[in-house]
Design goal:
heterotrimer, A alpha+beta (396), B alpha/beta (255), C mainly alpha (366), A: 396 residues, alpha+beta, MetI-like fold, two-stranded antiparallel ribbon, B: 255 residues, alpha/beta, 10 strands, 24% strand, transmembrane transporter activity (chain C), transmembrane (chain C), Amino acid ABC transporter permease (chain C), MetI-like (chain C), ArtM/GltK/GlnP/TcyL/YhdX-like (chain C)
Chain lengths: 396, 255, 366
């Protein structure tokens, strides 16, 4: 190619605001300038305001003694602990209720979603009734309902509802027996791990054998039997080295066992039930999104109903379901922050609430709280993107 | 624009491309394209898919950006200057493979939109003019319908009328008939032939060889981003020079 | 040879294929598993519905003025009755309620106009709802002009405040959301990343932390001595939050418009804003209406969170009424009432959005 004048240098040079590239550049520089000016303005004002109120900025407050107790903690905590520890306790409580909420919501959601498609008219109606009722009522209202109208209306300790005199429910919470492990119990988790490893090996071997010979064992059932049965066998063989610490009424309260505080119960119930109604809709539309032709084609290949679902419908439905399911999980995690309205000691409640009020370090506390949720959101979406990419790849 | 054009006189070519090159990433789609289109000339561009023929005409109204070489349309060099790009686009009509009518507007509104907003014509004037062009493409009776209610051939004729409403000096056709059912191709080609007979400068990317034979002043064959052969239709079809042209013609005329 | 001289009368189909009994057989008792499910379902319905109906209707007390008029055997709707004005208007002065009613009525007419497909002039009514109505509503509700007495925002509450928060949040978020969505599609890297970060940030954090931020940090950001009304602070937080969600809905709508549309507009010589304003957005907005209605439903439910920063929306005012010493112990009645109000709004909106979605889908098949 010979040397030719570039098109862009030809003709009279346009003024810079008409040149495409320069215009884009100018626009972006202006945007940066505007954002920077805005930030400077805010930072300046904030410094003035903080100086006027005598608040020093920085994260030094995290080492100071908190001086307040927390009703539920997964780690050692007392009112002598630091604000930093408060943060960790709140974070763990958030993660706990979120994780259990995700599990329960998924189970309820899948059951209701499938029931919604049931050929049984009554079951389908009941499921759609569930969905329409719970997703159209604000979550906070549902939390209040479970907390103030149900759990707070429970009888006092002496008149507790009980299940077989081992599980008790009263206004102070739910009391469960706690397993105490004696020596020799260590074998049982070990057998459990062994059973899982064996099951994985079985599934892999079964797959290879299926591919090589066409023959197949019901590996799923065998694995289930292994995972449940083997530890049971060992448990019986070692003479059941577990004793149960059953809660007992002493005076005005129960002692012993595990106590689940009503704040946790209310939040967990409301989160699970509310989110499940959305998950059910996602499951339903995911299954319905698979064209009927797919099922018919699989049936025409003489696949039995079970395999039609497993090999054709479910893999395709999962691809449709996973992205919205992820955002529901994220919503649940974010919604767990409503804990603060009923005093469940989650991150927002103990940190952005009590700690903020006591220290006045608004900027640090709110930023740390927001950062936690942002990081969780980021991690979950990264994981789900990766998972989604894998599921999607199977097809193309 | 028109002032400049008249100043330049009828001697200046309508479209001038010199050493135009374009890459998509590392892929070299247009290689040293030199092309001159005189006023009133009708040019048909053909070639296998992926040969760069659509990209070539899309560069003329800057729907695609070329990275080297120069393009001058009606005496105006095509640069990064936003005002000039819009000036050129006002003067160059384009008809797309998939019509690209605006589905939320009626046929009449489709035709009035650009005259009213870009050329700032009053509505009545724009509508009268639109009706004239719709009559020319024989679809005036459908003016109040929405594009979704028309057949493909009718939609493409509306798209031609929509472009004509801007009084372009050049018309670009990007495979205007390849998305149409066979029985509708003729109604669109008839309109295009009429347009050609009226002296419109046209660049058509098309595989309708009958159309090329009847109206084209020149046929251009492209392959792998290059102009391989360029000739008047008769020698082009009867006596193609390049092997690749021969192969291509035998493939599309072979049956 | 046989000859049939008698005409055969038409007979009804056998009972096992048509009629209510067949329907029952096909839909409820088609096999043992199904029958078990049906019976379980019936039992569940019985267990849930009987006590509910007994409590809410049969044993309920409806009329009266104080708690003594309630028998305590069923729901005490007397409580809700006595507080109804407060639940709807908050602490708005009783003599000025007509102002709120006018706003309610105008809003209802506008929305009905927009929702009924047959009525004309949709574009102008939408514009009026989005621009003129909020201004009009503000002057009427706040007062201070035309001889209207000023009603401070801290007296606003109840259903009225819930609607104000949701509608203002929505109306303010729409233009910001459009800009963000366009920015996210931009080819300018800095504009694009700014929009991405902005959107993902507000979507990544819970609304409650945003409200905390608006109520605690916002005063720090402003020059010393400048203070912002508590309601306005909440509205700023809600708007930022909502605009991020709106931007994603709008982006989805924009993606559904084929590229050819923008190209055709460009080929006709239109600049960027003309292409967007005349070609792309009008088409995209139409497709986005179901999505917009859905985010509005979420926002409507989420407005309940403002009670945590001390505003009395519908739920907040019900919650406050529950701690009134004259009416202790009627939590269930209060929540059921609030739930019912929210449910009516959300359910009808979600039905409407489903109807729109179905209409859009059939529109495409044409």
């Amino acid at each position: 190619m010979s040397v030719r004048p570039k098109a862009h240098t030809l003709g009279p040079k346009p003024p810079f605001w008409r040149d495409r590239a320069k215009r884009a550049l100018l626009f972006q520089v202006l945007l940066i300038a505007a954002v920077a000016a805005f930030l400077l303005y805010i930072i300046g004002n904030t410094q003035d305001n903080l100086a006027a109120r005598g608040i020093t900025t920085g994260f030094g407050f995290l080492d100071r003694t908190a001086g307040f107790g927390i009703g539920q903690s997964l780690i050692e905590y007392s009112s002598q602990s630091t604000y930093g520890r408060t943060f960790v306790v709140g974070l763990l409580n958030t993660l706990l209720v979120s994780a259990l909420g995700v599990i329960a919501a998924t189970i309820i959601g899948f059951i209701v979603g499938i029931a919604r498609l049931s050929p049984n008219w009554l079951i389908a109606r009941l499921a759609s009734g569930y969905i329409e009722i719970f997703r159209n009522i604000p979550l906070l209202l549902q939390i209040f309902f479970w907390y103030f109208a149900v759990l707070r209306a429970m009888p006092a300790a002496r008149d507790s509802y009980s299940l077989g005199e081992v599980i008790f429910l009263n206004v102070r919470g739910l009391y469960l027996p706690e397993p105490l492990f004696e020596s020799g119990f260590g074998l049982i988790p070990l057998t459990f791990v062994v059973a899982i490893v064996a099951s994985i090996a079985l599934v892999i071997w079964n797959k290879r054998r299926h591919e090589a010979t066409g023959k197949r064992l019901p590996a799923g059932w065998i694995s289930l039997a292994l995972i449940l049965g083997l530890p049971m066998l060992v448990l019986v063989a070692t003479g059941v080295p577990v004793t149960w610490d059953v809660p007992e009424l002493r005076g005005f309260n129960f002692r012993g066992g595990i106590t689940i505080i009503p704040e946790f119960l209310a939040l967990w119930l409301a989160l699970s039930i509310y989110t499940a109604s959305f998950i059910a809709e996602i499951v339903r539309s995911g299954i319905q999104a698979i064209p009927h032709g797919q099922t018919e084609a699989a049936q025409a290949l003489s696949l039995p109903q079970k395999l039609v679902l497993r090999l054709v419908v479910v893999p395709q439905a999962l691809r449709v379901i996973i992205p919205p399911l992820t955002s529901q999980y994220l919503n649940l995690i974010k919604n767990s922050s409503l804990a603060t309205a009923i005093g469940y000691p989650d991150l927002v409640s103990v940190f952005a609430g009590t700690t903020l009020n006591q220290t006045g370090q608004a900027i640090e506390v709110i930023s740390m709280t927001m950062a936690v949720y942002l990081i969780i959101s980021l991690l979950v979406s990264m994981f789900m993107n990766w998972f989604n990419a894998r599921v999607a790849l199977v097809e193309r | 624009m028109t002032e400049q054009a008249t100043k330049a006189g009828n001697e200046t070519p309508m479209v001038e491309m010199r050493g135009v090159n374009k890459w998509y990433g590392d892929f070299h789609v247009l290689r040293d394209i030199d092309l001159e289109v005189k006023r009133g000339e009708r040019i048909v561009i053909c070639g296998p898919s992926g040969s760069g023929k659509s990209t070539l005409i899309r560069c003329i109204n800057h729907l695609e950006e070329h990275q080297a070489g120069e393009i001058v349309v009606g005496g105006i060099p095509l640069t990064q200057d936003v005002k000039r790009i819009e000036q050129i686009r006002r003067n160059v009509g384009m008809v797309f493979q998939h019509f690209n009518l605006f589905p939320h507007l009626t046929v009449l509104e489709n035709c009035c939109l650009a005259p009213m907003w870009v050329q700032k014509k009053p509505r009545r004037e724009a509508e009268e003019q639109a009706m004239r062009y719709l009559e020319r493409v024989r679809i005036a009776e459908q003016a109040r319908k929405y594009p979704g209610q028309l057949s493909g051939g009718q939609q493409q004729r509306v798209a031609i009328a929509r472009s004509l409403c801007m009084h372009p000096e050049v018309m670009l056709f990007d495979e205007p008939t390849s998305a149409l059912d066979p029985e509708m191709i003729k109604e669109v080609l008839d309109v295009m032939v009429e347009l050609a007979n009226e002296g419109m400068t046209m660049l058509c990317v098309t595989h309708e060889m009958g159309f090329a034979k009847t109206v084209a002043d020149r046929v251009i064959f492209m392959d792998q981003g290059q102009i391989i052969e360029e000739n008047a239709p008769e020698p082009f079809f009867n006596n193609p020079q390049s092997e690749r042209t021969q192969l291509f013609l035998s493939q599309i005329l072979g049956h | 040879m046989t000859v049939q001289h008698k005409m055969i009368e038409a007979r009804p189909a056998p009972g096992n294929t048509v009629g209510p009994i067949a329907w029952l057989r096909i839909n409820l008792f088609s096999g043992p598993v199904n029958t078990v499910f049906t019976l379980l379902g019936l039992y569940l319905l019985y267990v849930l519905l009987t006590p509910t109906i007994q409590w809410a209707f049969i044993n309920a007390d409806w009329v009266g003025t104080s708690r003594d008029d309630c028998s305590r055997e069923g729901a005490c709707w007397v409580f809700v009755n006595a507080r109804l004005t407060q639940f709807i208007y908050g602490l708005y002065p009783r003599t000025e309620l007509w102002r709120v009613n006018i706003v309610f009525a105008t809003f209802a007419v506008l929305i009905a106009w927009l929702a009924i497909p047959r009525l004309p002039l949709k574009r102008w009514v939408a514009l009026a709802t989005l621009v003129a109505f909020p201004v009009f509503a503000f002057f009427l509700l706040y007062g201070g002009y035309f001889g209207l007495r000023v009603v401070e925002t801290h007296r606003w509450g109840g259903l009225m405040l819930t609607l104000i928060l949701a509608v203002v949040g929505m109306v303010a978020a729409l233009p910001i959301g459009i800009l963000l969505a366009l920015g996210r599609r931009s080819q300018m890297p800095i504009v694009k990343s700014f929009c991405v970060v902005f959107i993902e940030f507000w979507r990544g954090v819970p609304l409650i932390t945003i409200l905390f931020m608006a109520s605690v940090m916002l005063p720090l950001f402003l020059p010393t001595g400048v203070s912002v009304d508590r309601l306005v602070r909440a509205l700023i937080g809600i708007t930022l939050f909502q605009s991020a969600y709106m931007a994603e809905v709008i982006r989805g709508g924009l993606q559904a418009i084929p590229r050819g549309q923008e190209e055709a507009a460009a080929a006709l010589g239109m600049g960027y804003w003309m292409r967007m304003g005349l070609i792309v957005l009008p088409q995209a907005l139409k497709m986005m209406i179901p999505g917009i209605v859905n985010t509005f439903i979420s926002l409507f439910k989420d407005t309940t969170l403002v009670m945590i920063i001390g505003l009395f929306d519908l739920l907040g005012i019900v919650q406050a009424a529950l701690s009134d010493s004259r009416w202790l112990g009627f939590a269930l009645e209060g929540y059921v009432f609030a739930a019912f109000m929210f449910w009516i709004f959300c359910f009808s909106m979600s039905r409407y959005s489903q109807y729109l979605e179905r209409k859009l889908h059939t529109g495409h098949k044409r």
